[in-house]
Amino acid sequence: MIYRTPEYCRDFRCIAGKCRDSCCKGWEIDIDADTAAYYESIGGEFGKRLRDNIRDGCFVLTEDERCPFLNAEGLCDIYTELGEDKLCRICSDHPRYFEWFEGLKEGGVGLCCEAAAELILSRPFALSETDIPYEEAAGGYDEELFELILSARSDMLRILGDENIPLVEAISAILDIAADAQESIDMPFPDNEANDSGDALSRIFGCFSELEPIDVNWLPYIKDCNEKLVCLPEHESSTDIYLRRIAQYLIFRYLLKSVYDGEILGYTKFAAVSIIVISCLFRYSALKGTELNLSEYSEIAKNYSKETEYCEENMEKLLELFADEPFFSISSLKAMLYESLGVNVDNI
């Protein structure tokens, strides 16, 4: 079967103790059954430590929500004691993600990891394919629908990858492609217009402030940005390349999932909304008056990813809002794109 992945993934390396936001902090870490059985078989003092720190199939986090095996140097004691191949599946895979279809496996590295985020923002988006042994698909799906979505995604990635097409026009175009694809499989969907793009932007930030936070600093941060929307500096066109690559990442990662849940337009709106919100967060950070660099832009994108796509409940809530709220309509999103990225809305 074919294994398809962005080319930059081959250069991903975990930075371990150098990571400022370790994935071994603040997350519930599930242990797969095979690894749990192996840990039960370990003898001696380390085996006792393993069993004392596992409950209900998860590691028991410390009071400050660290994995009990994350040492003071930011390294994993299981890795150093037993070896890399003895990590549980989630620790071995993260931040990699995978999707399986008939004859096709896709994968990449997730934006919520700071090392991966720098790769995603700094490298051109290009796909590579290799042949791998057959792996079973995740579930049954309509093959005709799959081909329709795959074709729509190819068109979207082509448009996003053409830097001669201004970013606002590219995002607007992929929303139209998604709407056409969605309408071809559904009854016509409601897409009522919001009256004021400025108010809509504030309401979108209000929605994000009501999601379940992963990091305690997120809600104060997003709420303060909302309060300062009217005084944000102008959009820096130099950040368009970073936003474009984030959009490519999101469309590649999520659109094929819609073969299972039908959310073609929902996942595309997620990409568009993400570009709007992240561009505002870039501008909000610029209020400090210092010039931002790749590392700081990547940190902003990473934090956004962590609070949205890496919380299943938050993603479900957003997809519901995209379908229900008029300020998430295609026309409203287009107006906000033009406004947030510094183009007069009269040019739509």
Automatic annotation (TrEMBL):
Organism whose genome encodes this protein: Ruminococcus flavefaciens
GO molecular function, one term: methyltransferase activity
Lineage: Bacteria, Bacillati, Bacillota, Clostridia, Eubacteriales
Protein name: Lysine-N-methylase
An annotated GO BP: methylation
Keywords: Methyltransferase, Transferase
